[in-house]
Amino acid sequence: MKAIQITRTGGPEVLELTDLPLPTPGPGQVRLKVEAVGLNYADILTVAGEYLARTRLPLVPGMEFAGRVDAVGEGVE
């Protein structure tokens, strides 16, 4: 799957388009096919390494997103 990922904190220059493996949902989880994403102020601070919580790398930012469920894990109805 395509994703914008960061491996270091900083400005817009640290955003990298990358290929990541498609995750498989575990028990009680769902996977979404993301159709739209927004980067909000908290995302910008996270990418810069200045958010309230420590930025754990690597990170795919995007706290705001919309999509459809495309796979479910065991126990999900």
3D architecture notes:
There is one protein chain. By secondary structure, this protein is mainly β. It has one domain: Quinone Oxidoreductase, Chain A, domain 1, CATH 3.90.180. 10% of the residues lie in helices and 34% in strands. It has one helix and four strands, in the order E-E-E-H-E. The strands form two sheets. It has a two-stranded antiparallel ribbon. The longest helix has 8 residues. The two termini are 25 Å apart.
Give a quick rundown of the structure.
The chain has one helix spanning 41-48; strands at 2-5, 16-19, 30-38, 64-72. By secondary structure, the chain is mainly beta. The model has no long low-confidence stretch (mean pLDDT 96).
Based on secondary structure, the structural category is mainly beta
- Please give the order of strands in the largest beta sheet: 1-2
Please write the CATH class name. Alpha Beta
Span of the ends, CA to CA: 25 Å
Q: How many DSSP helices?
A: 1
Number of strands: 4
Low-confidence segments, given as residue ranges, are: none
Order of helices and strands: EEEHE
Form type: elongated
Q: According to CATH, what is the topology?
A: Quinone Oxidoreductase, Chain A, domain 1
pLDDT averaged residue by residue: 96
CATH superfamily label? Medium-chain alcohol dehydrogenases, catalytic domain
Give the biggest beta sheet: 2 strands, antiparallel
